[in-house]
Amino acid sequence: xxxxxxxxxxxxxxxxxxxxxxxxxxxxxxxxxxxxxxxxxxxxxxxxxxxxxxxxxxxxxxxxxxxxxxxxxxxxxxxxxxxxxxxxxxxxxxxxxxxxxxxxxxxxxxxxxxxxxxxxxxxxxxxxxxxxxxxxxxxxxxxxxxxxxxxxxxxxxxxxxxxxxxxxxxxxxxxxxxxxxxxxxxxxxxxxxxxxxxxxxxxxxxxxxxxxxxxxxxxxxxxxxxxxxxxxxxxxxxxxxxxxxxxxxxxxxxxxxxxxxxxxxxxxxxxxxxxxxxxxxxxxxxxxxxxxxxxxxxxxxxxxxxxxxxxxxxxxxxxxxxxxxxxxxxxxxxxxxxxxxxxxxxxxxxxxxxxxxxxxxxxxxxxxxxxxxxxxxxxxxxxxxxxxxxxxxxxxxxxxxxxxxxxxxxxxxxxxxxxxxxxxxxxxxxxxxxxxxxxxxxxxxxxxxxxxxxxxxxxxx
Length: 461
Ligand SMILES: [Zn+2]
Ligand SMILES: [Zn+2]
Hints:
It is built from eleven helices and 18 strands. By secondary structure, it is of the alpha+beta class.
C-alpha cells in the first residue's frame, strides 16, 4: 500500500454482496457474514479445504508454521527499500529452490517468479506478494527489530517493513511450500509472483513494481487466468479476512499547480499579482470538485492539497505559489473528470486574476478493483480457510499496484487483520514506526492463499 491505510471492517450482517463496499455505516456489534449460500451456489470451485487435497495442504501448512515465522522475522530484520530488494530477492529464490522450484530472478529488477506445474491439466492461477520496505525507523521493541538504514531522497533513513510486506513474502513462501507438496494433485498451474517496488519509486525509476512486471510479461507464458493478492492491516483484528467486490482501493494521482504571480512590495499589492491570494482561491474552489461536481452516489473521491508553498518574507508579495496535492478516485471516468476539473479550476481562477497557472498531473496507481464473479466464486473458500473470520470491508482510499495485475486478468485482493483484538482501536497504522504484527494471524494468511489457488484450479476455467 502506498499510503496510510485503515480499512474499516463493515460489521453489518445485512450487507448485501453487491453493496458490500458501499455500506455506509457499521452495525454496533460484531457479526459474521451471513452464510454465503448464494455465493456457494454460484461457485464452480471445488472445496479443497474440505477435500483430501485441502486436508493435505493444511497438514503441510501446519508442519511449516515455525518456518513461516522464522522467515518473516528474518525478512523483518533485513528490510530493503523499493527497487533495492537485492537480498530479499536472493532469500526468496533460495527458499523456492529448496522447494524444488526453478525461480526466475531479476524480473522487473528484483522480482522473483516461480511456476508450480500441477500433475493434471487445468487453468493457471497467480499468487502475488510484494517485498519492499519503507523509509521508516522502527520503534517496535522486538528481538528481530530492524536497525537497517539506507539512502532515500538523498538522506540517510531507517528502513522498516512498516507495511507488512515481510509477512506477505513469508505467507506466500509458506503457501508455495504447501502447494508444491500436493502438486501432483493440482489441476493446473500456480504462478508465484514476488513483486518488488510496490511502495513507489522515484520518478526516474518509472515504471516499476507490478506495472513493470506486467509489461515484462509476467502474466503470460503460462497465461494467467486469475490472480490473488493479500495485504495485512493494523486496523483489523488478527486473523480477520476482509473482502470487497468491485473497486476496493483508490487510484492515486499527484497534482502540482504553479500559480504565476508578479512580485512586488507587500505595501503595494496593486503593483503586482499576488499568487498567494490566487492560490488560496484555487484551494477553496478545488473543494467543490467533490462537494459539487462529482456524483457521489456512484463512487466517493478525495481532493487534498498537502503543500502550499510561497513567499519568503512579510513585506514581499512573491512571484509564484506552488500547490501540491493528491487525488483519490474509484472509477476511471470520475478520475478523468477530476483531472479535468483540477486543471480548469486552476487555470480559470488564475485567468480571472489576470495571470496563468501551470498544472501538472502525475498519474499513479489505477483503481484496484476486485472481479465480482471471482469474489462470488471464491468467498466460500475464504469461509472455509478462515471460518467465522471473513468480513466485508469498506473501500480503502489508499492505493495498491496490484491494480496493474487486476486490470489485465480477473483479480481478487483480500485483507488480513494483524492486531490483537484488544488493541485494534489504538493500533498504530501501516507505515507507522510502531506498526506491529501479531504473528498468530500469519498462518491464516498462508492458508487463505494456498486454498484460493487450489480451489480456483479445482474449479476449472
Ligand atoms: Zn504501504
Ligand atoms: Zn503495503
